[in-house]
Each structure stands twice: as C-alpha cells, then as structure tokens.
Amino acid sequence: IPHISLFLFCFLLSTENLLVLTVATKETEGFTRFKRSAQFFNYKIQVLGLDEEWHGEDDKAAAGGGQKVRLLKSALKQHADKEDLIILFTESYDVLFASGPAELLKKFKQAKSKVVFSAENFIYPDRRLEAKYPQVRDGKRFLGSGGFIGYAPNLNKLVEDWKGQDNDSDQLFYTNIFLDPEKRVRVRESCCFRHTWYEVVLKFENSRVRARNLLYDTLPVMIHGNGPTKLQLNYLGNYIPRIWTFETGCTVCDEDGRSLTGYKVRTDLLPFILIGIFIEQPTPFFSQFLKRLQTLHYPKKRTQLFIHNHEEHHRLQVDTFVKEHGKEYHAIKVIGPDEQLENAEARHLGIMAPHGLQIWKSFTCPPMVKPFPTIFPSPCTHRQVIAPLVSRHGKLWSNFWGALSPEGYYARSEDYVDIVQRRRVGIWNVPYISNIYLIKGKTLRSELDQGNLFQSSKLDADMAFCQNVRDRGVFMFLTNRHSFGHILSLENYETTHLHNDLWQIFSNPEDWEEKYIHENYTAALKGKLVEMPCPDVYWFPIFTDTACDELVEEMENFGQWSAGGNVDNRIQGGYENVPTIDIHMNQIRFEREWYKFLLEYIAPITEKLYPGYYTKTQFELAFVVRYRPDEQPSLVPHHDASTFTINIALNHVGIDYEGGGCRFLRYNCSVRAPRKGWTLMHPGRLTHYHEGLPTTKGTRYIAVSFLDP
Ligand SMILES: *[C@@H]1O[C@H](CO)[C@@H](O)[C@H](O)[C@H]1NC(C)=O
Ligand SMILES: *[C@@H]1O[C@H](CO)[C@@H](O)[C@H](O)[C@H]1NC(C)=O
Ligand SMILES: *[C@@H]1O[C@H](CO)[C@@H](O)[C@H](O)[C@H]1NC(C)=O
C-alpha cells in the first residue's frame, strides 16, 4: 500500500507541473471544443490574447503568427525561473485533446529533450530551407509551430529574442532557431504527441472510444485538423474526448438561445423566420412539398418566404400557391424563371433578404425534402448552422457528408452508415450539408456576412457554401434525433406529360404510393373493407381522388378517344363486339407504369381473395373508358377477354354523372353506385357475363384492365 500511494503522489505532482498556453483572440466554436476537451482531461490552461485584434492573414493559415510569439514571450517572462514547470504551447481552434496530461508528460520525457516541436510533412513558409533540414529515418521531417512542449526556462530562452512584427511568420522564426547550430538550443522534433486527423481512426469498445494513429501505431494525446476540414477536425470531434451525447432539444429559441417551448408564448413574441425555397431543377411531387410547407408547425404570420423558381415547369404551381396562400405569411418574395438569376446568386439574395428581427433563417434547397420536417430541429444556443438528416428511402444517399478527403471531396466516415440509419442518434459536427438547413440570423449578420457564400469558381453552390462556412470557423451540425423526412430521386423525371408524378412509380415509389394509393388500401389488403356486392365480385379502395383526377385529366389532355380503335382490341376474341369509347394506357405511354401498379397493388390482393390463384398480372388490355349520354352511354352484355378484370371508378356518381354501374346477368345483380377510387374485381370469360348500365347525365370514367396469370 505505501508503494501505491507514493506512486500516486508522484503522478499528481508531475501533472501539477504542466501548464497549457494557447492564443485565441476569439471564442470560436473550435475554441470552445478545445476548452471542453482540456477540461475533460483536467489540463490547466491559460488563454492569451482573448479579445485582442488578430493581426494576421486569416485565409493563409500559417502566414503571420508573430502575434502568437509576442504573446507567448510576455507570458513566459513570469515563468522564466521555474525549473520544473513544463509548458505546452498549442493552437486551439483546430485542436483537441484525446488523452490526459500524464500520458503527455510520459511521452515528453521519453523524447529526452528540453523542447519538443510537433512535426509536419511539408516545409513552410520558406521552401529553400529544405536542404538544411536533417534527414529522418521515418515520420515527418519538418518543424511545425502549431504545438510544442518544453521546460519553462528553455521555452523562455527560445522566444526572448523575438523582435518581429505581429504579421511575421512564427514558423519561420522557430525554424531558423531549429536550423541554427549557433543558437545551441536543443530542439527536437517528434511526432510523439500531436497527430493529424486523417492519420487517426477511432476504436469503439462498448461505451468507450479511443483514437489510434494507424501510421505510427500510437495513441495520440492531441489531434489537430488540417487541410479543408481543418476547423471541423473531421468527425473525430464528435467523439473525443467523450462519447457523443444525446441532447434534449427545444423547438424555438429566443435571441439568446433560450428555449421558448413549454411556455405559453404569445405569437407576436416569436422570432421571425425566413424560409428560402430554391427550385433549381424540375422536381417531382412538388405539389406535395407545398402541402407540407402549409402544415409546418410555426405561425405563418411570423414566417417569411423567399422562393426562387428557376424552372418554367413549376411556374403555375408556384403562382397558384402564392395566390392562394401568400396572404397568410408575413411576407413572400418570388423570383421567377423570367429573371434568369443564377442559382448561387439567388441563394445569396435569399440569405441576405430582409434584415431585421428574424432569428433563424431556414433553407430548403432544392426542395426535394419530404415530408417537410414539421419539427424544426432546435439549434439552441451554440448551434449556428444545423441540418436535419434527410436521406433517400432505404438508401444511404443523404444530405450530409461524414468526412472530407484531404482534397476536400466526399469521404465516408466510419460512422456515416450508423448516422444515416439512425443507429447512432445525436447532433453531429459535419463538414458538408445540403438540401435543407437552418442558419441563425445573427450568424448571417456576423461571421457569415462576407460576400456570396454560394459562389465559387470551381465548386458547386453547396460545396462553396460549406467551404465558406468551414473557413469562417462556423461549425455545421447535423441532427438525426428525429425522422425528418427524405430526399427524392430526381433522375428519370419526365416533364412531357400533364401529370408527371404519375410516371414516378419506379423512381420514387414511396412518394407515388402516398400520393396515389388510397389510404385504406392496406386495410383492404388485410381483408378489411373488402365488400362483395355480387357473387365473386370484390370491391375495395385502391386510388386516391388525386390519382383518379390526374388519370382522367391525362386522358382528356391526350384526347384521342376512339371506339375500339386500338388494333389489339380486335385480336382479343369477343372484345371487338363491344367497342368502347376509350384511350389505352399504351397510347399515353403509361403501360410500363400501369403494369408495375398492377403487380405491386393488384396482384397481392388477387391472391388473397382468390386463394390458390397466382398472377403476374399479365395484361393485353388496359384502358380508360368514357361513358356519356350523347356519345356512348352504356355497354351491351359481354364476356371479358380475361381471367379476371378490374374496373376502377374514376369519378363520383351523383356529382360528375348520373346512372352508370355494372350488372352481372347470371346473378341478376348490379353495382349501381360505384365509388370513386374503388375497384371492382371479377372473373372474366366464363361466369361473369355483364353489361355497363346507361349513364344518363354527365360523363363517367372507369379504368379497366383485363388480367391473366
Ligand atoms: C506587416 O505590417 C506592417 C505594418 O503593420 C506593414 O508595413 C507590412 O507590410 C506588413 N508585412 C506583411 C508581410 O504583410
Ligand atoms: C378509411 O376508412 C376509415 C374507416 O372506415 C374511414 O373513416 C375513412 O374515411 C376512410 N378513408 C377514405 C379516404 O375514404
Ligand atoms: C332481377 O332482380 C330484380 C330486382 O332486383 C327483380 O325485380 C327481377 O325480377 C329479377 N329478375 C330475375 C329474372 O330474377
């Protein structure tokens, strides 16, 4: 026991002798993260230069830096004679601790030097000095000024000769000392404690996580960002120094980030939000998107809309929406296709639009997000930019990147799949977001108030935006704490039809189903709600009103109604005897989609209702029939040229027409009041000899398909 306490005593003593010095002129999010990690591991830190103006060039990372040496020099004076004090000097915006002081000190002592600098792969800022650098057997060769550790008196000696300007290079200063044998300051570089993010992987063990450097097979004490993801520090910052946290959210915050939910808030006290909607390419199910926008849980009187519609294709929908709902909003601004505004320029205008009271501005670009998140993610307090996770149905394609490659393009992070599939839930610092995100108004007026964030000579608008946000030290977050919706597939969207969404059954099947399949179809599939008005004639809901209306309008738009005009009719025995006024699915190039519909929605229910019968819903004939008193009011008794037939009513009896219905002669049984969106299903060629009852007023439409195994 005495041994152990002695050991503990030594341990405490030694870590007590460590002081971390860092320069930070602003309390950025990166700095906050650094501080959090330092506190977690119990480092003693002293911050130099806070709130001082920074005299360096922000965009050239390592140019300048002399200010840091000046600040360090003055701070070290008071420690000059503390022989035992070990000082770690480090950058902080793009650095975090991954381990505690004991390990750091152990590694420092192993290096057997008075001062140890972190090493870099590249020489900066003066490349001509390369020849003077000693060769190293492995590891990095060049000095970096971002982090070094040493005894206080030695460090003091190192910087006491500094007479440079604030904008001179600190790195060059240290490099010259390192390379000058006259100075006789023993400086040794080593990769023993500081590691670059892309060399590091995370090892998850139960609820613990530890970073490991694969290159050197060591456990880093500090990790620093580098390259395009410098400040985001890749996704490592999400886990280090601690396990990711679940955060309790709030829906609306006031100017100081206090939650306003849970209080009875007067609507006129709620902050203004601005929603930017950017329609940058033809987008399916746009009408559904607008419907969802209407259901957003936020008072419209406190909401402003900014709509940039680049597409002629959506002009009517946007105009109609503005006409019908514009007045409900606090303000609404539309930039139409005529104005021929570049997308990046429009987004810039949108972001800069009305300055004033608004706190959050939210963005949806392009608007293929759906269902539109009715719960706004809640970027309280320190979240300045946050995106709700949306991905394609059942796919890994989403609106964020977990990591960047060192060149700044997409890289899959170790946790990407888990976050998309919501196996890990939380709020994540990520380097790239798109499609939908929220930005704090205050941030737009401060950190991000510098020119067009979306403009870049090389990058697309989304990548440009993210790069600019990253460069300005603002963190982007992604939340997957709720299911916020999904992204549509925009490939294969045809715009040549009247109702193009009808053709989306392959590309966006879930959205297609939601828009077109009757809400009670699933109940019917379970055998509920299925009626049998005549023997072996089943009757169940299949289409929404919208599906019926769009199909009829599509046919009327095509317009080539004819009586048995289709060659196929004559091939089918019996059918030519009873020609109808119709348009076939193949005439509007809808047969592939119709076949898919039959296979997906009719086949399963057929097999339920006629047990032992299996169908691949092969069909020769599928068409929409029009009955009118003055054209063709009825159909004489006939057999269908099919094993079974479906007959879907496409409009409302009593509203759109009178009369109509279907009579099965063998059973002396009629279905007289067909319900819109419901289908009849009955056997074809043998037992169910039937006739179409006369339509006495208006126009009646039905969709008929003759089906075989
Ligand atoms: C550094 O700043 C001084 C004055 O503040 C200026 O004269 C000089 O040109 C600057 N040097 C560089 C390299 O920017
Ligand atoms: C679906 O079924 C329920 C219960 O029978 C009914 O109340 C509802 O109106 C039906 N929905 C439609 C669109 O007909
Ligand atoms: C058919 O049914 C109607 C009433 O539903 C009835 O009046 C008529 O007599 C029936 N005809 C035959 C042939 O059974």
TrEMBL record:
Q: Sorted alphabetically, which Pfam families does this protein's record hold?
A: 2OG-FeII_Oxy, GT_PLOD, OGFOD2-like
Q: Where are the transmembrane segments?
A: none
Q: Which SMART domains match?
A: P4Hc (SM00702)
- Chief place of localization: endoplasmic reticulum
Domain of life of the organism in this record?
Eukaryota
In what way does this protein cross or attach to the membrane? Answer: Peripheral membrane protein
Q: Which GO terms describe its cellular component?
A: rough endoplasmic reticulum membrane
UniProt entry keywords in alphabetical sequence: Dioxygenase, Endoplasmic reticulum, Glycoprotein, Iron, Membrane, Metal-binding, Oxidoreductase, Signal, Vitamin C
Give the EC number: 1.14.11.4
Q: Domain Fe2OG dioxygenase spans what residues?
A: 618-709
Q: Which cofactor does it need?
A: Fe(2+); L-ascorbate
GO MF term set = iron ion binding; L-ascorbic acid binding; procollagen-lysine 5-dioxygenase activity
Known InterPro entries for this protein? Collagen_mod_GT25 (IPR050757), GT_PLOD (IPR057589), IPNS-like_FE2OG_OXY (IPR044861), Oxoglu/Fe-dep_dioxygenase_dom (IPR005123), Pro_4_hyd_alph (IPR006620), Procol_lys_dOase (IPR001006)
Which reaction(s) does the protein catalyse, per the Swiss-Prot or TrEMBL entry? L-lysyl-[collagen] + 2-oxoglutarate + O2 = (5R)-5-hydroxy-L-lysyl-[collagen] + succinate + CO2
Q: Signal peptide span per the entry?
A: 1-17
Its localization reads: Rough endoplasmic reticulum membrane
Q: This chain belongs to which protein, by name?
A: Procollagen-lysine,2-oxoglutarate 5-dioxygenase 1
* Species this chain originates from: Crocodylus porosus
